[in-house]
Amino acid sequence: MIDLEKDPLTDKIIGWAIEVHKRLGPGLLESVYESALCVELEHHGLKLQCQVALPLKYRERLIGELRLDIVVENSVILELKSVERMEPLFEAQLLTYLRLSGIRTGLLINFNSQPFAPPRNQAIRTLIIPYPKLCGLCDSVAILLFAC
Fold this sequence. Notes:
Number of strands: 5
Strand order of the largest sheet: 1-2-3-4-5
Number of domains: 1
Number of helices: 4
Strand content: 25-35%
Largest sheet: 5 strands, mixed
CATH topology: Trna Endonuclease, Chain: A, domain 1
Shape: globular
């Protein structure tokens, strides 16, 4: 199982997401944060894909497609939100993406948060909630409700 608090890739992604939030602040559309985070990740040399189509099949027949916000290094799905309140549906959405894609790690990030005072490392520890083996195929999911 991956410990997201010690995983260098997820740690960097979280730090860069916080940087985006610091620069832009809360209250913008999800698409704005997604574009900015893609720029930030590319700036740091990461390989990523934005708005990745994930075919959805039922009984071996294509019935539609899902959209993954960002896939980093083919190993981490980023599901971004800009909402006032996180809902359990968002966790289920990310878990479904992980199960269907075969990717084993994901971060659910809500950019619509007000800043808070704790130091970055302390805040991250209290905000990451691992879900080991919750969806069978995935190692872990982080629910990241952060502000800077």
